[in-house]
């Protein structure tokens, strides 16, 4: 199993974390984003959108981090631990996969990218958007230890990476104690792999 990734990508870390939590052996294939390897014809053949991550499971090619989580759960999570098998549980996880592609991507992730790759987002827009999202997450985690219940799921995996590194985008997590406790619970899970940190934003030396 191969995962095409880059260490600064929270989308790629999301997929890597899922693989590791499931205990699935895999090879990390570094994609040179700086030299636009993700736009090369051979990569476009795997993902027409030219984005990482991409999973190659012995010839089954799955692009997109959300799709990878769904694939891994369907293929390797027979007990429904990470995505519940009942309709309501699946829908709750899907809501957070959608949040990962929406308010998380356009809030905490966008704020971080300003500092990590000099992305041209307006901090006066994306930082308030990040805090609006974190307020929702904090409220949910005041009610339960994980996003959809008492046990971790791929809802937590989808949300973790960019929220954990939100300080790199000058998004302070101090006012979110339940969220910070949740981050610690994720980081204590067997098989957890950390998301690489960059010395920017609130993490600047």
TrEMBL record:
Q: Name one Pfam family in it.
A: GST_N_2
Lineage per the UniProt record: Bacteria, Pseudomonadati, Pseudomonadota, Betaproteobacteria, Burkholderiales
Taxonomic source organism: Pelomonas margarita
Task: List residues of the GST N-terminal domain.
Answer: 1-80
* Name recorded for this polypeptide: Glutathione S-transferase family protein
Q: Which CDD domains match?
A: GST_C_7, GST_N_4
Q: Which PROSITE patterns match?
A: GST_CTER, GST_NTER
Limits of the GST C-terminal domain: 86-205
Q: Which top-rank group of organisms is this from?
A: Bacteria
Annotated InterPro entries: Glutathione-S-Trfase_C-like, Glutathione-S-Trfase_C_sf, Glutathione_S-Trfase, Glutathione_S-Trfase_N, GST_C, Thioredoxin-like_sf
